[in-house]
């Protein structure tokens, strides 16, 4: 049974003549299978249907293209004159074999593309996992830095509280040394017994009594109160120091300085009043003071 030429077989399978000629020429006339591989590989190229440069013939080591005069299958060639004529049944059988070959090539191409798509998907997933791991490491580093910053701030806050306590203790010791005693809790001295009243008609008017002790009741903002006895000559600063030492820790942080107010008549004591004796401020022999938070200046 006579066989179709490679060019005719490609045209029978539905490939355009120009594209078939180009495929055969660029594959060096190595057969229909090589030409079909080229056609299927380059079918999506934008220049697949552009005419082949005839100067490529000598470069590729072949004669001029089929469409050129004197080509391998051009008019008047020996091959063209001796080409056998195939029967309809033979042509259909050869076309069937070519179509099966085309289908096989398509399947191979689809399998290759599927493998490439799977490989691209694996690479994409691998890159995604690497990116997720890098993002996780970054978040862990940020959380670790934040925890270290909180620990550092907490340590600084505790150190600041300790400095405040030490300062209060130093102030307490200095005031105790300055005023010759401690401003801490001490028992109140017994009240002196009243002198017997003379029944003599020539009794002299009573003289103003001098008190050397002062009993101070301090009302705190939370409703509780402190009571302490001070010397009449002690300064009002001793009372403020006593309050700062005994009012307890306030929630949320360090202690704020306090301001002392008298109940009646209403009076707010200034910083200058802190250096004045209790006797001079009219707080002897007893007084009630109110503690309020000192507003920042």
From TrEMBL:
Q: Which UniProt keywords apply?
A: Coiled coil, Cytoplasm
Asked if the keyword NADP belongs to this entry, the reply reads: no
Identify the stretch(es) annotated as Disordered: 44-213
Q: Does the keyword Signal apply?
A: no
User: What does the entry list under GO cellular component?
Assistant: cytoplasm; nucleus
Q: Where is the composition biased (Basic and acidic residues)?
A: 86-122, 137-177
- Compartments it resides in: Cytoplasm
The molecular function terms in GO held by this entry are: K48-linked polyubiquitin modification-dependent protein binding
Main location group: cytoplasm
A single GO BP annotation from the record?
Answer: negative regulation of protein K48-linked deubiquitination
- What positions does the domain UBA occupy? 1-42
Q: Which residues form the UBX domain?
A: 209-291
Protein name as annotated? UBX domain-containing protein 1
Which species does the entry assign this protein to? Propithecus coquereli
Read off the lineage from the record.
Eukaryota, Metazoa, Chordata, Craniata, Vertebrata
């Amino acid at each position: 049974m006579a066989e179709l030429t490679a060019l005719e077989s490609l045209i029978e399978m539905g490939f355009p003549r120009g594209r078939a000629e180009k495929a055969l020429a660029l594959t060096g006339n190595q057969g229909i299978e090589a030409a079909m591989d080229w056609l299927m590989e380059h079918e999506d190229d934008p220049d697949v249907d552009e005419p082949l440069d005839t100067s490529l013939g000598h470069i590729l080591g072949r004669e001029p293209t089929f469409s050129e005069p004197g080509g391998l299958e051009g008019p008047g060639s020996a091959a063209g004159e001796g080409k056998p004529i195939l029967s309809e049944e033979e042509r259909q059988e050869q076309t069937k074999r070519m179509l099966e070959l085309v289908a096989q090539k398509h399947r191979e191409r689809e399998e290759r593309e599927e493998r490439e798509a799977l490989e691209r998907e694996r690479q994409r997933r691998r890159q995604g996992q690497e990116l997720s791991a890098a993002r996780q490491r970054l978040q862990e580093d940020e959380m670790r830095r934040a925890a270290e910053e909180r620990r550092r701030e907490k340590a600084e806050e505790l150190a600041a509280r300790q400095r405040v306590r030490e300062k209060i203790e130093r102030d307490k010791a200095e005031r105790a040394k300055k005023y010759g005693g401690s401003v801490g809790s001490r028992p109140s001295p017994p009240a002196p017994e009243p002198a017997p009243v003379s029944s003599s008609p020539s009794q002299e008017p009573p003289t103003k009594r001098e008190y050397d002790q002062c009993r101070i009741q301090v009302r705190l903002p939370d409703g509780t109160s402190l009571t302490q006895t001070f010397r009449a000559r002690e300064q009002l600063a001793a009372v403020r120091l006593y309050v700062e030492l005994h009012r307890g820790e306030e929630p949320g942080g360090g202690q704020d300085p306090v301001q002392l107010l008298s109940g009646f008549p209403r009076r707010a004591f200034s910083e200058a009043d802190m250096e004045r004796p209790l006797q001079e401020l009219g707080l002897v022999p007893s007084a009630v003071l109110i503690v309020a938070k000192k507003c920042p200046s």
